[in-house]
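Reading a protein record of the kind used here takes little practice once its layout is understood. The reader may check this reading against the record printed directly beneath this paragraph.
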Amino acid sequence: MSFVLVVNGDPAAAQEIAEILVGGGLEARTETSGEEALALVAAASPPQAIILEVRLSGFVSGYEVLRELRNRYGEGLPIMFVSEERVEQFDRVAGLQLGADDYVVKPFAPEEFIARVRRMVTRSASVDPRAVGAKLTPREAEVLQLLTSGLTQQEIARQLVISESTVASHIEHILDKLDVHSRAQAVALALRSGLVGAPTA
C-alpha cells in the first residue's frame, strides 16, 4: 500500500502531520528517528513521499536522512522538509540546496500543505507504469528486477549468463526508456510505479 512517511523527532508533531495527511485522503506512517525511517524505506517499496523534520530522535538528522535517500533513490523520491524550529530563510535555502523538493515552516495552513504534498506525489507518479513497462524488452525487465534486488552489474551478468558489457547496454536502454539518470532513480521509479516487486532479500 502506498503511503507518505512522516519523520519527526516529536511523536505528537509527527502524529499531527499524519492526521492532516489522512484527512486529505492520503495514507501516512510515522517514525521519530532517522535510523528507523531509513530502515523502513529500505525494507519496502519507497513511499509516495517523505515529510522530514530537521531535528530527529537518535543520531541521524533530517539533513543526513535526505542525503542518504538521495544517494539511494536519486531525485525520483519526493522529499519535503516541514520544520517548526528551522524557519529562517537560510534554513529553507539550505534544505532546498541539499535536494529537498519543498520546505514548509510551521504553522501552516493544512489545505496548502496537502496541496503541496499532492503536487509532489503527482509529479513523481506521472509516469504510467503500463506504458513504461511496455517499452522494456523482457530481458530489460529482467535486468531491472535484478537491479532492484541490489545485484551488481557483474552479478547480473553471471546470473543471466551474459557479458557485463551486454548488461551495461541493457541498463543504458532502461535508463533511457524510464527517462532517469541513474540506476538508483530507475529502481525507485520501478518500485514506486509497480513495474517490479519489492526486493525480497
Summary: Residues 39 and 116 are 26 Å apart (CA to CA). The longest strand covers residues 79-83.
